[in-house]
Amino acid sequence: MSFSDPDSFVLVPDQSLRAYNTFGIDARARWFCRAQTPGQFAAVLRDPRVAGMPHLVLGGGSNIVLTRDFDGVALHVALTGKRLVHEDDEAWYVEAAAGENWHAFVAWTLASGFPGLENLALIPGTVGAAPIQNIGAYGLEMAERFDSLRAVELASGETVVLDAAQCRFGYRDSFFKREGRDRFAITAVTFRLPKRWTPRADYADIARAMDSSEAGRGSATPRAIFDAVVAVRRAKLPDPAVLGNAGSFFKNPVVDAAMFEALRAREPQLVSYPQADGRVKLAAGWLIDRCGWKGRAMGAAAVHERQALVLVNRGGATGAAILALARAIQDDVRTRYGVQLEPEPIVV
Ligand code: EPU
């Protein structure tokens, strides 16, 4: 391969992944490659040095726990670019390459006059990772603004285009965490941003932050919501650049109505959100907090002081230490409330 070949690549042996996961876990990959074109994914996997080895596609590394060195090839998604691809009477269609930083992309859409993603401001990670767990915050899930995505099927090197139905989005869930796991590298995502913009400002924390700001009061503009979301996240959630973490470590569990009534009889303060199907979502952070875990540590792995749903690396924690803490929390919550907490990040 020559350097004029856009799909030529550099394979680095024995690379630390510490800078490539927001927990800051110092696991190593036997081989590492930055993929800057869609074609590089399949090209790397045909290289005789790594052919047949397991692969790990890494975006911003903001939703992963590395529990061991990776005996295979880590593919870091470094594709960039963002643009308006199309507009009609109803919506703007905006595409971004998978390696674009999510928050910078959200800020760019607003600055370009395409609102609709402001509730998802400041979520760590990349555009390409957003569909994998269907990121969500403050009353909005990515799936509601999703149009389609492009991905490379790693085994065949074929490009596929998937719509929302094919991605099978659920709460912090998609096809890519299930049947599609380890099979694709997402290369670009297109969002559909409706021209008839309506604010989503009813989430209690956001409504409060808007009330207390001059700009927000009385006028729910996209910018005011963006600013409120940024302020709330900064106040509650640790910045991964300062304190390693992967956002919420557990999903909020959903229980049936009978279970909910029984729990509420014991715990009148229980924080809950009724679901359309009659079941009830519980705030895992509240349950963990109530079990006394907020701010507690096991070695270098700890529960964040301001949000019990977030586990943090106080420095030098291994993935195994983080999982040990997670298991202790799960055991306590199960024993006390009969509720099984399910981790949100992917465990490797
Ligand atoms: N709570 C406590 N103690 C805590 C943490 C929370 O009592 O230590 C209570 C809060 O007072 C509140 C309720 O639990 O009444 C819910 O807390 P919060 O509003 O902070 O949201 P969350 O349910 O803990 C979810 C998402 C977050 C998202 C926020 C806002 C999940 C797993 N997490 O957290 O998403 O930012 O709502 O929409 O659904 C992520 O997925 O990584 C993430 C950060």
List the helices and strands and how they pair.
Layout: E1 12-16, E2 28-35, H1 38-45, E3 55-58, E4 64-65, E5 70-77, E6 82-87, E7 91-97, H2 102-111, E8 136-137, E9 140-141, E10 146-153, E11 159-163, H3 164-167, E12 184-194, H4 204-211, H5 222-236, E13 244-248, E14 254-255, H6 257-266, E15 272-274, E16 280-282, H7 284-290, E17 297-298, E18 301-303, E19 310-313, H8 319-337, E20 346-347
Parallel strand pairs: 2-5, 3-5, 4-20
Antiparallel strand pairs: 1-2, 6-7, 7-12, 8-9, 10-11, 10-12, 13-19, 14-16, 15-16, 17-18, 18-19
Bound molecules: uridine-diphosphate-2(N-acetylglucosaminyl) butyric acid (EPU).
Give your account of this protein's structure.
The chain has helices at 38-45, 102-111, 164-167, 204-211, 222-236, 257-266, 284-290, 319-337; strands at 12-16, 28-35, 55-58, 64-65, 70-77, 82-87, 91-97, 136-137, 140-141, 146-153, 159-163, 184-194, 244-248, 254-255, 272-274, 280-282, 297-298, 301-303, 310-313, 346-347. With 348 residues, it is α+β, with helices and mostly antiparallel strands. It has a five-stranded antiparallel β-sheet. Strands 1-2-5-3 form a four-stranded mixed β-sheet, with helices on one face. α4 packs across α5 (222-236). The structure holds uridine-diphosphate-2(N-acetylglucosaminyl) butyric acid (EPU). Uridine-diphosphate-2(N-acetylglucosaminyl) butyric acid (EPU) binds at residues 137-138, 205, 236, 247-248, 251-252, 271, 283, 285-286, 289, 294, 307-309, 344.
